[in-house]
Amino acid sequence: MYFSFIRTLFGKIGMKIINEKLNYLKELVFESDNTACFIEREKFLNNLDTSVYNVESLNYHANILAGMLDNVSVPVDENDIFVGRVVEGVLDSFEGVPNRTLKSNGHMSPEYARLWQKGYKGILADIKKNAEQRSDEKSMVFYENARIVVEAIRRYSKRYADAARSKGLTRAADALERVPYEPAYDLYSALQGAWIVHLIASCYVGARDYAFGRLDQSLYPYYLKELANGTTKEEVEDILAGFFIKTNEICGRTSWNYKRKPILCNSSKQYVNIGGENPNELSFAILAAAKKVNMAQPQIVVLLDPGANEEFTDATFEALTVLTDKMNVYSYTSVKSFLLEKGLSEEIASDFTYSACCTFDLNHRNIREEYFLPSVQTFCNVIYEKDFDNINEIVEAYFDALRENLLEHLDLVQQKVSFTKNRKAFVLDALLIGDCTEKCRYPLNGGLTYHVYNVFFSGIATVADSLAAIDKLVFEEKRFTYREFIDIVKSNYQGNDDILAFVTSLPKYGNDLSVDKYAAMVGEAFVSMVNSISLPKGKYAIPGFYSLDKDNRWAKDIPATPDGRLWGDPFSENQSPTYGADRNGITSLINSVSRLPLEKTATGGFNLTFSGAVKPEILKALVTTFFEKGGLHVGITVLSRRELEDAMKTPDKYKSLTVRLYGFSEYFINMPEWQQRAILNRTAY
């Protein structure tokens, strides 16, 4: 039956028709209203009948989700390859929108492999057995919430099956008669079941950054079943392309930090991880499907072990020339070695993922948690408030202050967990994350064996170049006393234009010069500080050099720095030099970044910008050499300054233009002007 469906969808109508479907679905995304909310969700939550939904009930949130899923529409387009979308609309008033009565933390990689193997039916049976064995009230409440949610999803899927059948979408209808309640039986049914869950979690519960984990590994058995049914490899690529397009429908084209769409999952970053030690045929198919779609979502993350499969390594860099900013490449071997040194088992150290914004996860075993150290703010506080006799004293005092800040944050995290232990928790996430179903506990109430805290240092170049300037002008050449120079900096260099010009002209990190030693010094102190933090068993602090948008967002409140940066100006981004400071070419840049202790991290970002297309073999040589030198991550943007400037003037011509923003892709015309100019200020090779 399913073989005949594929023949109908992909064989008889031909590749031309499937491409027309894909193009049609892409155009729907570009034409979507970025001011619209998920209107049925909002109306339902804003009109809750308190006589039906008792706020004191321990099943409160589960009952709300069940009621919502029973009442929302199940829209289907006859061109859909996978079904499942939400009705959008603009409300007269957006006060209180989106409604937060129902929400999730998100930021996780659900264990879809378990869903495909067992179905919610099997998972629910496991929960019931575990709850009965534990026989405590919390476990039984957990089971009851799970039952309510699973049965609601089953009814919702059945309604979608009927809607799909009425539109002639037989395969989607047949799949949703079974999944996600029952186990998946081939690749298409696995993806259709996962999509329904992904849609509910992102749009109806509401949360950002649900990722798809190690998709080429978890989905591979179903890929083989798909081929056994008679589907060709090319047809599999089209199925995957249809699935990838769906990830763009959830939040349209709005930027995550500008003119936010009034939804809880605004600009959700949805990552697909592939590669590692065992890339397979599906790894290649995922790359091919992503190229066919070539939209901001999903982000393809390649965990690259160049020695694992040379053909896959070549395919990675060929895909990177097409996908550019929609793709991340990480050194798999470096991260795995770091995790083994952390004491993690071979099994877990081999199964890590990234789930948005260059943030590290132990796949489906934890919920993403991250903390951006106020690196540049703290640096200014330290150097302004006390006099020092040498650079080592500054670095020691600086990291003492940062360590205190990190400990305070981790203490607040523990207080939050303690506070939330007894709150009314939501069960949907718990069905596919950590050990929640075994323990009959919610993620923040004992359901997770592993907790990962991503600790980010931002502004590495700004701090390093500042230390270099102090060392040269104060301690080496003794042009000023420490206090004289710091007072000049503190005054925002007012009346000292000659000193500002001199400081600005000093050698900077990013040019393969001796000044890089200060970046290495700061980097080593940072990773040592993070690794010195004592945490309970199962909790891990993972250091990384990453800024997200803090280099601009925080900058307005940060005073001048000794590197020549003025009050309010941006500081350096991610692992990169200060904008425009790298002038000695891309090889020198890579050598500089390689001096950071990246082998002692598992997260962070390094963005390369090119002014034109780069051949795959050149990218391969650059990236693999960088990894051999100890590099961790590479993301690229290929841009034309003239094109970006024209896009700022005539945005309607550039609706599909994307650029790399920190650790992900964004639509350029939907970014704020300050962020657009930040992209323009990057050095393009």
Please give a structural write-up:
It is globular, with a radius of gyration of 26 Å. The chain is an alpha/beta fold and 685 residues long. Helix 12 links the parallel strand 1 (271-275) and strand 2. The chain is built from 27 helices and 13 strands.
Shape: globular
Count of DSSP-assigned helices: 27
**Count of individual beta strands:** 13
How can the largest sheet be summarized? 5 strands, mixed
Strand content: 5-15%
Helix content: 40-55%
Based on helices, strands and strand pairing, what is the structural class?
alpha/beta
Low-confidence stretches: 1-13
Average pLDDT: 93
Q: Span from first to last CA?
A: 53 Å
List keywords for this structure.
27 helices, four-stranded parallel beta sheet, alpha/beta, 685 residues
Write the SSE topology.
Layout: H1 2-12, H2 14-30, H3 39-46, H4 60-71, H5 112-134, H6 137-166, H7 170-176, H8 187-206, H9 215-218, H10 220-228, H11 233-249, E1 271-275, H12 281-293, E2 299-304, H13 310-323, E3 327-331, H14 332-341, H15 346-349, E4 353-354, E5 360-361, E6 369-372, H16 375-385, H17 391-420, H18 436-439, E7 451-457, H19 460-476, H20 482-490, H21 497-505, H22 516-531, E8 539-545, H23 550-553, H24 586-594, E9 603-604, E10 607-610, H25 616-628, E11 633-638, H26 641-649, E12 658-661, E13 664-667, H27 673-680
Parallel strand pairs: 1-2, 2-3, 6-7, 7-8, 8-9, 10-11
Antiparallel strand pairs: 3-11, 4-5, 12-13
Helix pairs in contact: 1-2, 2-11, 4-6, 5-6, 6-7, 7-8, 8-11, 11-12, 12-13, 13-25, 16-17, 17-22, 19-22
